[in-house]
Amino acid sequence: MKINIKRLNSNYHLLATNEDGNEVHMDSSPDIGGEGNGIRPMQMLLAAVGGCSSIDVILILKKQKQEIENFEVEVEGDKVKVEDHSVFKNITLHFKITGNVDRDKAERAIQLSMEKYCSVSKILQPTANITHKLTVNGK
């Protein structure tokens, strides 16, 4: 696995490109001179845990023949300062699924992702308490 990161301006606007040519823009926060041209790296971590778990959950539900119409995850994280850096203390993933999906199967898929399959959550677990919520068809 390889990622190339290229600076795009005289400040902090960066372009990350993977081996397949897919791109993600990153930037710092405006309070240190960023211009809002991309996702901040700590936000990228939240996106990564949400994306990793989403792929797991969708894969498991598809194997169980669940009919997903819409799938969304809101990820919230609380950071704390540790020495000169920050870590996530709490991360909550709110899965919102609509379709012909059994709630118990969705809950189990999320648990399997969080406890067994999602590599990103495993990386974050030593510093972050990761929890989840589930809404199926608005309930």
CATH topology of the largest domain: GMP Synthetase, Chain A, domain 3
Q: Low-confidence runs (pLDDT<50, min 5 residues)?
A: none
Beta-strand content estimate: 35-45%
Using only C-alpha atoms, the radius of gyration works out to 17 Å
The tally of domains stands at 2
| Class from secondary-structure proportions | alpha+beta
Q: Into which percent range does the helicity of residues fall? A: 25-40%
Structural shape:
globular
Span from first to last CA? 39 Å
Could you report the average pLDDT, rounded to the nearest whole number? 96
H-E string: EEEHEEHHE
The CATH superfamily title of the largest domain: K homology (KH) domain
Architecture per CATH nomenclature, i.e. the level-2 architecture of the largest domain: 2-Layer Sandwich
Largest sheet: 3 strands, antiparallel
Which CATH class of the largest domain? Alpha Beta
| Strands side by side in the biggest sheet | 1-2-3
